[in-house]
Amino acid sequence: MRIAFFTETYYPTPDGVSHYLHEVKRGLEARGHEVFVFTLTGQLERNVVRPLSVPMFWYRQYRWPVNFFPFILYKKMKDVNPDVIHIHDPFYMGTLGYRLARELRRPIVATFHTDFSKMMDAVSLPMKETLFRISWRYNMYLYRRCDAVLAPSPKAAELLRSNGAGNVRVLPLFTDLSRFTWCRRESVRPFLAYIGRLTVDKGVWRAVEIARELGRSVGGTRLMIAGTGPEEERLKESVPEYKEAEIEFLGYVSEEEKQRILRESYFFVYPSTSDTFGISVLEAMATGLPAVVTPGFPLLDFTGSGDCTILHTEPPETAGRIRALLENPSSYMQLSEGARQFVESNFSSEAHIESLLSIYSSIRQKTK
Asked: Would you state the torsion angle of the CA atoms of residues 343, 346, 347, 351, taken in this order, to the nearest 10 degrees?
């Protein structure tokens, strides 16, 4: 089968979607399928096509196309002649994928990776409310015209259906359990980690407040923050005010550095309000880290999540829950073992790819 992915972002761009696509491409190719990636960012590798682009001024790891009428690029897309078209964003590349599917009369799948409606506070633009409203409407307009829309969690599927999308199927994401291995922590220390974009909606400010409250109650703590984003400078300016916590800003980190951070940490703090799944949380849990997440976080929809998560309400209460685990290593160990078991039981890469292939085959049969 020849499969074409259309995405704004690809590996090693620092976000969950780019890494996910890289893993899925490898998995599909290992099963004998051809996968082509049309993207605006990422490394050039076999069957990856990236047109000329320039960095976004507010989010420099992402890019704008230079040519909004890409006749040569579109010809390359047609020459690929894919059996299935899979769009992973609803904007520039996603629109090109949709147009190609309609012209070639190919089945089209979309994956709902990002809830753009929750990201408005992360950018500073004139008339941003209007811009986000129009973007969300276009997002749903495109999804309603796809043969299948994949949601990474039941919560995301419910949001899609409530906005008129049909043919919605839940397909959870996964993490590589061979890279993110369980680490036994003999003692429990107040070391926290946050890995993700530094934006308001991802909860990085809440993570800092939790570290501050915990430091007050236990006599100091450490928070490692890995990632980049529009809140980075404001956070760094505020750090001198947080005497109770040692806060390290590590910027964008490699996969090897990410694994080191998780091995050295004891709790993963990610109180996001905008995720449709939470791949960074899954990676942390795979190493045995109990995760601090908000009520309603998408991973809580899956069986066993209550055995490995700490619900964040207000910083003092959340810090109190962490402190109780610091004082009770056996309870911490139960959460740590439960975190790994939760990932192993619910999120297999093999099952994900097999389900994806089954969806491709079924919509190809329906659209013949």
From this structure: 150
